[in-house]
Design goal:
heterodimer, A: 112 residues, mainly beta, 4-stranded antiparallel β-sheet, 0% helix, B: 111 residues, 5-stranded antiparallel β-sheet, 11 strands
Chain lengths: 112, 111
């Protein structure tokens, strides 16, 4: 058990819809990272928050946004969903320059 | 953006065999991490290497960081079915908290 909790585990929705994925980091971790994992692209970094502030941005689409709340949980919002957004979405916490990132078990998003 | 190439993409071996998987880049890494991911779970960190030429051992797993800090390898001795999973390498740039992941090597160890 990594200590990182992601909900929901599975999400099935239709094109054009909007969904919110939730992540609770490990106790004491200030950083939250979001990743997208697909078969062809592998694990792609989307965005990082540190203590409520955006710290780094990766390959995140404009249709996607995230935030980190005062209690340090984070939400990833995906809107105007397309078939190609079907993927596993992972949240990780911890990190630091050489530290490990602790991953949740992911949310599997399926767009029909 | 650093690009990490992992090889082979897929590897299927018999229990008890040895294997090596590779992670290469044209860029220099400040550090490199290896993760293992099992189906239905997130990646779990195995090791972090920092110094060029560094070798780290974790039971039957041996990790090596290239002298020029552009490549790394993971060697597994006497593979077990429990070693089955997706092995990912991830690199961080100097002063960066962001990790770039390779696409991984999917290992199947057949009993």
């Amino acid at each position: 058990d990594s200590g990182v909790t992601q909900t929901p585990k599975h999400l099935i929705t239709a094109t054009g819809q909007r969904v919110t994925l939730r992540c609770s980091p490990r106790s004491g971790d200030l950083s939250v990272y979001w990743y997208q994992q697909s078969l062809d692209q592998g694990l792609q970094f989307l965005i990082q928050y540190y203590n409520g502030e955006e710290r780094a941005k990766g390959n995140i689409l404009e249709r996607f946004s995230a935030q980190q709340f005062p209690d340090l949980h984070s939400e990833l919002n995906l809107s105007s969903l397309e078939l190609g957004d079907s993927a596993l979405y992972f949240c990780a916490s911890g990190g630091g320059l050489l530290g490990p990132q602790h991953f949740g078990d992911g949310t599997r998003l399926s767009i029909l | 953006t650093q690009l990490l190439e992992q090889s082979p993409q897929f590897l299927s071996i018999q229990e008890g065999e040895n294997l090596t998987v590779y992670c290469n880049s044209s860029s220099v890494f400040s550090s490199l991490q290896w993760y293992r991911q099992e189906p239905g779970e997130g990646p779990v960190l195995l090791v972090t290497v920092v110094t060029g030429g560094e070798v780290k051992k974790l039971k039957r797993l041996t990790f090596q960081f290239g002298d020029a800090r552009k490549d790394s390898s993971l060697h597994i001795t006497a593979a077990q079915p429990g070693d089955t999973g997706l092995y990912l390498c991830a690199a961080g740039g100097a002063g960066s908290y962001q990790l770039t992941f390779g696409k991984g090597t999917k290992l199947s160890v057949i009993p």
